[in-house]
């Protein structure tokens, strides 16, 4: 199995081109989320959104690379949710050409292991209700639905999921 690494996004022109490609390779997600047109992902707006995310206290935007240094995914993390205190995965996006190759599960495992090492007892995320395949993916990794509510930024209906780390 190939090695995967997660490193902070540096916002270089090359990395931003790779990130635009990650989004464009996931047209179903782009349409479901309603943030970007998958046919023309606006690099400047995507960069501004990710810079805002990375500049928020306790948030990280991480680029996932394989052993050949290819960008294979993007992960956004929140270290401590202001309401429940848990770490959250804000986004886990795998390049569309690499779906069903266990990369998403491996990236989730890297995040889970990181928080486990930090002594955290659980981790959460929200999945858009209109992406049942995403709920099925997370359920297959041992995550459980704990709530349904709208997301804080866009008001989209979401399934809140939790995974115990202890």
Describe it.
The protein has 166 residues and is α+β, with helices and mostly antiparallel strands. It has 5 helices and 7 strands, in the order βαααβββαβαββ. The protein has a 7-stranded mixed β-sheet with strand order 1-2-3-4-5-7-6, with helices on both faces. Helix 4 links the parallel strand 4 and strand 5 (122-128). It is globular, with a radius of gyration of 15 Å. The two termini are 26 Å apart. The mean pLDDT is 94.
Essential attributes:
globular, 166 residues, alpha+beta, single chain
Summarize this, please?
With 166 residues, the protein is α+β, with helices and mostly antiparallel strands.
Poorly predicted residue ranges? none
Please tell me how large the radius of gyration is.
15 Å
Shape: globular
Note the quaternary state here. Answer: single chain
Describe the largest sheet: 7 strands, mixed
How many runs of DSSP E, i.e. beta strands?
7
Sequence-ordered SSE layout with sheet pairings:
Layout: E1 5-8, H1 13-24, H2 27-33, H3 43-55, E2 59-65, E3 71-78, E4 88-94, H4 103-117, E5 122-128, H5 132-140, E6 144-150, E7 157-164
């Amino acid at each position: 199995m190939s090695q995967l690494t997660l490193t902070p996004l540096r916002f270089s022109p090359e990395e931003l081109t790779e990130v635009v490609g990650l989004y464009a390779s996931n047209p179903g997600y782009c349409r479901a989320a309603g943030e970007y047109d998958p046919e023309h992902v606006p690099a400047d707006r995507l960069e501004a959104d990710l810079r805002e995310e990375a500049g928020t206290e306790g948030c990280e935007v991480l680029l996932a690379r394989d052993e050949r240094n290819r960008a294979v995914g993007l992960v956004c993390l929140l270290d401590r949710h202001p309401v429940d205190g848990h770490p959250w995965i804000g986004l886990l996006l795998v390049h569309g050409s690499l779906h069903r190759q266990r990369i998403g599960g491996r990236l989730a495992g890297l995040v889970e292991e990181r928080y486990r090492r930090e002594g955290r007892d659980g981790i959460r995320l929200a999945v858009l209700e209109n992406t049942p395949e995403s709920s099925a993916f997370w359920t297959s990794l041992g995550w459980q639905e704990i709530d349904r509510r709208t997301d804080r930024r866009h008001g989209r209906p979401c399934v809140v999921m939790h995974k115990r780390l202890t």
